[in-house]
Amino acid sequence: MNILEDDFLNKIAENVAKSCDLENWKFKRHENIKTIENYFGILVPLTVTGRRNESEEELHLLLKLKPETAEDRMKLVLKYLYDTEHYVYTRLFPLFGSCQLNVDDISPKCFYADMQPGHEVIVLQNMTFSGFMRYPNRFLDYHHAIVALKSLAKYHSLSLISIESGKISTENDFVKPYTDTHPVELNIALKLCLESHSQLLKGEKCEKFLRSLAERYNNIRVDSFNKSKLIVFGHGDYWKENILFKYVNEKPTQACILDYQMVQLMSASQDFLTFLLVSVDTKTRMENYENFISAYIKSLDSILIEHNIDTQRIVVDFQHDLKVVAENCVIMAVMAFALWYGLEDQTLVKSKDTTDKVNAEKRFTQTICEILNDLNRIGLVRL
Questions:
Q1: Where is the CHK kinase-like domain (predicted)?
Q2: Does 185 or 290 have the greater pLDDT score?
Q3: Range of the domain at 243
Q4: What total number of domains does the chain contain?
């Protein structure tokens, strides 16, 4: 069914109104707002209004649907990603709720979800109407990074509490660790990207290291989970484009986490470190690395202590895992920056066209070398 057909939108609005106990409801399409299609879904803005308890309510929504133009080889991948986000909103977050844990201040509320073939939709709160917005620059500054890490810590703490309480088992049939074989298409893409772009660092001391990552790829991917200790239902794609910020007096005070398609069992350290590599520049990262760790751990501890979880053990496991996951985080960063600088044309998703490939390659080389040199100075990798 066409996503913009009134019958389709009316049915969605009806289910949203029912879930919110709205009477005399109606919906409004935003004709002046362009439907947005990204790598992993289509976003359609919608407003539903109605009456509840004698007062008028207005719900600003984003309908999230599967991409319409997926290549044949990508259809199974996109189905898995979409199904994962559906699981997070309809199963994982409600399980957090059963532990009296609230995600509403760090994630959009889900009003309705449907997985019937041809009718797949996830209906989310449009956070921009609550004062949240994207950060416009390429890298986050210190204050935005701190706020983002506090939200990540809360998300991880909810996962840890749910696992420790026995509400959620890590032995489940759906959200699994990413390995050297799962998901297949992602691994093909990551390895191709690593092999093809390592040559751009020719003559650099980092080239040999990247080539060794490609050679040891399978072991790195497996070990990043098997040898880690602090396992959570990690976000898997936590970087600045999947975060919205809210401000008070022009200062960031809250961070809202978006796009849960790549949620997986993983080390909390992997979410943390990948975020620092792809969302913060080298100067900010190196000047504030210990501050970033402290802010994350302090936020994690403040919630875990209330649930009688041994925070000393958590800190030790977190520090242990940073070394375990560092090389895997580099692999993810290589793909992230190859996409950002417009150098990908043959892997999981294609980059946007770039008109200055030579300059893009120089920026890519500089960024990856900065990442590797930073990790070497911190002591997480050895060049």
A1: 122-306
A2: 290
A3: 131-378
A4: 1
- Residue 144 placed within a domain: yes
Contacts of 175 (CB under 8 A, 6+ apart): 84, 87, 92, 233, 263, 264, 265
Let me know if residue 222 belongs to a domain: yes
Q: Give the lowest-confidence range in 205-209, 235-239, 354-358.
A: 354-358
What pLDDT, in 10s, does the model give residues 77-127? Answer: 788 888 999 999 999 999 888 777 788 889 999 999 998 888 889 999 999
> What is the distance between the alpha carbons of residues 195 and 213, in angstroms, rounded to a whole number?
9
Measuring CA to CA, how many Å separate 244 from each of 40, 106, 127, 217?
Answer: 18, 9, 8, 33
Assigned domain for 80 exists: no
The CATH number assigned to the domain holding 211 equals 3.90.1200
Using alpha carbons only, give the angle 149, 155, 157 rounded to the nearest 5 degrees.
100
Q: Quick check: is 84 in a domain? A: no
Beta bridge partners of 55: 52
